[in-house]
Amino acid sequence: KPGATLALRPWPTRYANNMATPVAVEGDVVISTKWTNLTARLRPTLTKGWETVWEAKNQGSNVTTPVLAGGNLYFAVRGLTCMEAATGKVRWKEGRFSDATSLIACADQRLITWSNSGDLGLIDIRSTGTYQELAWLPLFAEDMAWPHVVLADRHLLCRGHSGKIICLSLV
Predict the structure, then answer these.
(1) I need a surface site. Which of 4, 28, 51, 72 has the fewest CB within 10 A?
(2) What is the mean pLDDT of the chain?
(3) Cα atoms in the 13 Å half-sphere on the side-chain side of 76
């Protein structure tokens, strides 16, 4: 029946903190939170509710939703994690990223990152075997990056926790 609930699954977290949004992956759903220390790929079924495809314990995103690009999930908690979407295997965890990191996957297989005390980064994800930082630009001296970074009409908008916003032209 259209619009009917297929499956429900509790996803309890400490402090009732559910910030990350589920990600659709080939008909499945990946959910990830630091507060459960768990990332899982779940498949809705018509008869059994949610079926677990895989679980990755001690892995989870914090403030932002994992980003799916090239068959991998990317998220940040004390480093940027590259995880195979098919298996949940961590390929690498690297970089100088805080929990409050925002990511945008670009068509050219690069990630725009917004993190820490207002650091804007560009990460090459064409080679999933290693972490490759292409650029790092500190934009705020005494503030904290506050997700989410926005890409619109060839402009990148970066917001700090204080409310300060920087708009960068990408042309």
Answers:
(1) 4
(2) 88
(3) 27
- Residue 34 three-state SS: helix
In contact, 80 and 106? CB cutoff 8 Å: no
- Alpha-carbon distance of 64 to 110, in angstroms, equals 17
Classify burial at 37, counting beta carbons within 10 Å of its beta carbon; exposed 0-12, middle 13-18, buried 19 or more. middle
Please, are residues 20 and 13 in contact by the beta-carbon 8 Å criterion?
Answer: no
Q: Which two tokens stand for residue 97?
A: 């990223």
What CA–CA distance (Å, rounded) separates 122 from 33? 24
Task: Kindly give the parts of the chain with pLDDT less than 50.
Answer: none
Q: What is d(CA 60, CA 73) in angstroms, rounded to the nearest whole number?
A: 11
Task: Give the pLDDT confidence of 8-40 residue by residue, as tens digits.
Answer: 877 777 777 666 678 999 999 998 888 778 889
